[in-house]
Amino acid sequence: MPWELASGLWCWTAPHPDWRPDRGGVGGWDRNVGSWLLEEDDRVVLIDPLLPDDHSLLRRLDERIGGRTVDVLITCTGHLRSAEAVHERYGATVWGNAKTREDVEQLVTGLIVDGVSLPAGIIPYTPIPNDAEEDETAFWLPPQHALAVGDILIHTPEGLRIWWTQNTDALREEYRKRVQPALRRLRELPVELILVPHGAPITTNARQALQQALEPTPGSARNLLNAQSFVSPRGAINKQACAQTLASLTALTVTESHPLHQVGR
Q: Could you say which DSSP state residue 66 is in?
């Protein structure tokens, strides 16, 4: 059932239809993934929604939406999930950044532009490269002091981590040149909640967790990559590569600092 994280901000989890056991475990992601709902007087915004087969939850969503205008914000193409079903069920406008819109132009009719306010006053930060070779968007929800992200961050048992394969010099260089600068823009936000699709929301010391994930101290490569958060692109686990990469990163010093769902994670 949905639960309220902050005033007007709701969360629910649902089993991902494309999840398989080999996608879980060390370096993988859990079967249940998170979605969020933000409500205003005349509008409801859904972020990366995944509609479950649970009819009681669907009834709860119907009741909460209550005929209001619905918008769907997509962090990345891989999180289209139930966007089409929500569009058909509620007449929602689906929003995505330029890359997502290019991938699914007929469904994604709202264009997300970096820094340009979205419905409910949500501020997008885009593009942020992720490990699936997509450009994703992070969403800042000012009244709730909440930051919603796609696949670039994951909440592991060890804490918030950057989900990025670092097993080649080229990928490490891309991280330093493209990923790290994009993420650093999030550091100054007065974050109190971090909404990650994989792992539980971070509801305490969220800003500290974000700072520690984005700015590891020299030699602390596990903030970038650790045994709990290594995946190869598209979520396919590679434990041998994980071990090899962790070994190579030990000495690394960071100097700069069912048809309702699309396949994804």
A: T
CB 257 within 8 A of CB 216: yes
Over the range 182-191, which residues count as b (16 or more CB within 10 Å of their CB) and which as e? bbeebeebeb
Q: Which two tokens stand for residue 109?
A: 């009719």
Check: CATH 3.60.15.10 for 3-249?
yes
Question: In this structure, are residues 202 and 209 in contact, taking their beta carbons and an 8 Å threshold?
Answer: yes
Name the percent of the chain lying above pLDDT 90. 58
Q: Give 226-264 as a DSSP string.
A: -TTS---GGG---HHHHHHHHHHHTT-------TTS-S-
Q: What is the pTM of this model?
A: 0.82
Mean pLDDT, rounded, of the chain: 82
* Separation in Å, CA 163 to CA 17, 63, 105: 21, 35, 27
Residue 146 confidence (pLDDT) above 80 = yes
Q: What pLDDT is stored for residue 264 in this prediction?
A: 55
List, for residues 101-112, the tens digit of each pLDDT value: 998 989 999 999
Contact 44, 259 (CB under 8 A): no
Residue listed under structure tokens 């792992």: 199
